[in-house]
Design a protein that fits this description.
There is one protein chain. Helices cover 84% and strands 0% of the residues. It contains five helices and no strands. α2 crosses α3 and α3 packs antiparallel against α4.
């Protein structure tokens, strides 16, 4: 059940990411538009995914805003490596496949790989349960 729920949330986050990229391309198509769109999409997907993971995957209850900010910072840090995978895949599709929508397929593939890795990183380093630390 956890894998299904995580997959659904990854899909929701991917959708947010791609929608924000799409809107970004609609607003700006100049120099570096792909990079601007990927950055904006990444931020949108990150926030959505953090909220869903925190509440419904890891069931983390924040103590206060400072605790939440620390968790979000650590969650974001764990996402750096997976973001490199995602961005690399999206850019590869963008530059090597002569179809304007290829970048979106690359994004979905890169995000899918990244989210699988990110789950294990978040479980081990971000949302650590007390009973796991004691063992």
């Amino acid at each position: 059940m956890l894998a299904i729920k995580y997959s659904i949330f990854a899909g929701i986050s991917t959708l947010f990411n791609l929608l924000f990229q799409y809107f970004s391309f609609g607003l700006y198509s100049g120099l570096g538009a792909l990079y601007v769109a990927m950055f904006i999409g990444t931020l949108a997907g990150l926030v959505v995914k953090y909220i869903l993971d925190k509440k419904f995957i890891f069931y983390h209850e924040v103590k206060d805003k400072k605790d939440d900010a620390k968790k979000f910072a650590l969650y974001s840090l764990m996402g750096v490596f997976t973001t490199i995978i995602f961005w690399g895949t999206e850019m590869g599709f963008y530059y090597f496949i002569p179809n304007p929508n290829a970048k979106y397929l690359g994004a979905v593939i890169g995000l899918s790989i990244g989210y699988v890795i990110k789950y294990f990183l978040d479980k081990k380093f971000v949302f650590i349960h007390k009973e796991e630390v004691a063992s």
